[in-house]
Amino acid sequence: MLQHRSLAGRALPGAQQRPCVASARRVIVRAKEPIVAATTLLEKEQEAAPSAAPGRGAAGAPSTSGSKWVIDESELLTSTAEHRAWTFGPMALMGAALAVAGSHVDGPGGALSAASAVLAAYVLSDLGTGVYHWSVDNYGDGSTPVFGRQIAAFQGHHVRPWTITQREFCNNVHQVFKPAAYPAGGMLLLSPVLGVWPGFFLPSFLFLVCMSQQFHAWSHMKKSELPAAVVALQDAGVLIGRAAHGAHHRPNFEGNYCIVSGWWNQALDDSGFFRWLEKVVVATTGVEPRCWYPPEHGWIEEVRPQAK
Ligand SMILES: [Zn+2]
Ligand SMILES: [Zn+2]
């Protein structure tokens, strides 16, 4: 028997489940300035969800008991010292690994190898973000081990997509750079023995995947809100643009998952790659993806409130 909505279909609480917010452990710092309709994910008290029964409740409303994360509306959007440390620290590790790789370049052949590695990292990072985005949009929920917070954040983004545009840079990207600190450290340790090509490819790939969080934010902004250089890169197709990513934000959120350049989106969607992958997942695990069904109540995109 298929297990649709046992893992894939459990909804996180939306605005209709405010009582859950009351049971959340407050771990946020409030900004001095009033914040309009920002959201964050708060870790619930473990004892607040003793019965993690998945799926919908008896009355057909989304189950709120199974998720470890809930949405809060008084989120800090500015960057803190901790956000900056978790952004620039891993960036420094990646930069140091690249510097070691650079010290191995000797002559035009090495330079060509380094350039091809960076180009490959750019092209493949788009594919990597697409596969990752597809997986967290469609499987698991806020209580999934390790990835629960990321899953809840991606799915919460479908409900309130404007929130990502309100975050300062380090506030936004530290969420991805922080877990990347560990592979970045590993790359730096290995860098003395890596050749030029892997020495350039690995840190470049990791950096671009982390930066996709910001490329994604830029794709939700109007051109008038963006630096001219970003608009130029979007217009040139180097970075994913507003129209290309906007195509993802249509129920059932079943395509256009790539968020670096978006180059892979058409090939992946036209070829039916993700539908094939979903059938493989169903055949092997019995779990259906969310995108096979309309979004559950509470996960339909809300209207952006007007700033006062
Ligand atoms: Zn999505
Ligand atoms: Zn988006």
Concise synopsis of the structure shown:
The chain has 308 residues and is an all-alpha fold. The protein has a domain at 81-292. It is built from ten helices and two strands; from the N terminus they run αββααααααααα.
Strand residue percentage: under 5%
SS summary, helix count: 10
Low-pLDDT windows of residues:
1-40, 43-71
Helical residue percent band? 40-55%
Ligands bound here?
zinc ion
Listing every helix as H and every strand as E from the N terminus to the C terminus, the arrangement reads HEEHHHHHHHHH
Distance between the amino and carboxyl termini = 51 Å
Radius of gyration from the alpha-carbon trace, in angstroms: 20 Å
Q: Mind summarizing the main beta sheet?
A: 2 strands, antiparallel
Mean pLDDT: 80
Going across the biggest sheet, name each strand in turn. 1-2
The count of DSSP E runs of length 2 or more, i.e. the number of strands, is 2
Transmembrane segments: 187-211
Membrane topology: Multi-pass membrane protein
GO biological process, one term: fatty acid metabolic process
Main location: membrane
